[in-house]
Amino acid sequence: MKWYFMIGFLLVATIMIVAGHIALYASWLTFFGIHSLKIKWALRIILAILSMSFIITSLLTYWRENTFVNALYGGSGGWLGMAWYLSLAVALTWIIYFIGRWFGVKIPLAIIASACMAMGLAYSVYGIRNAQHPVIKRVTLTIPNLPQAWKGRTAVQLSDVHLGPVHREKFLQRVVDQVKSLNPDAVFVTGDLFDGGGRDLDKLAEPLNQLNPPLGMYYITGNHETYIGLDQALAALENIHMKKLHDQMVIAAGMQIVGIDYPKMGEKKDLAAIMSHTDPLQPSIVLWHEPNHLDELKRLGANVVLSGHTHVGQIWPFNYITQAVYGANDYGLQTDGDFSQYTSSGVGTWGPPMRTGNRPEIVVIKFE
After folding, report:
1. What percent of the chain has pLDDT over 70?
2. Taken in order 142, 143, 145, 151, is the CA torsion positive or negative?
3. How many angstroms separate the CA atoms of 311 and 328, rounded?
4. Which of 115, 120, 140, 253 would give a disulfide with 85, using CB separation of 3.0 to 4.6 Å?
5. How far is Cα 194 from Cα 205, in angstroms, rounded to an integer?
6. Segment 54-83, tens digit of pLDDT
7. CB 180 within 8 A of CB 174
8. Looking at residues 181-204, what average pLDDT do you find?
């Protein structure tokens, strides 16, 4: 079932990406009055290669990941993001053209197209830079019956780091340095620590060993760990001193911490069975990668649920899709009586190494 799903996804994605590049090609010929057969063929070849580059390099990272393949993957991902904004620029140019035509105004297509595409490229460059600089997001959570050991303490949530072909050791080291400067009492890693490639995962994660919070460091899997293989992902973390919570609960200084692994393809999590090990009269924090089934977790006694997964769409305007899927739980803090839920925008990126319309974040949670 997993392979059918992946093949179907790749097929649909390939069709959409190729169609987008064909639209770029046809529009550029019109906007810039290109008639030279040599230039047309050059554009066809270049755009044909670029249109397939991300799919091909994504597959290569699974087959034979190395420095060269990683560079190709990062470059093709960057182009994919730029191509999206170039496509929006082309669409905007056509809109301006048809509005002008409606009002009988002659539109200088080459000038308008150049200006729109320049804005699209500038926004893409901003998005790439933005993705490399996580911000600190501070949240205060009020929990009933909070143990004395947790009062006034802080925890850091790291979600969706996506270590792999793009985000390497240096990226995680910068994140770890930021976390160390915050001096947290606990660290929660809420899934998608890894991305898709499988080379040197243990080396990529090693900077996490520099963190030693007094109330512990806890980890759950996300959907991307299931893509690379849970055994491989967990083996890479064997020497990382954080508690891997596989559908289980631990007690840390009176706080119940429940970690729920991301379900495998076709698996349905028995949340009631997992939460049955908790005492509903005692406070509990649930680590759950995807922000869904929250009403059920609340009913089962969770006080706090920490999630990620959405990236807030990562690239504008895909945030409207994640909002449609997850509603208010798409991003940020939601409270309902004694229940609180926080969805992080995440630290890293998947696919295009850019973020527009949102910021990558390291979440600092203060408990009261």
Report:
1. 98
2. negative
3. 14
4. 120
5. 9
6. 999 988 887 877 889 999 999 999 999 999
7. no
8. 91
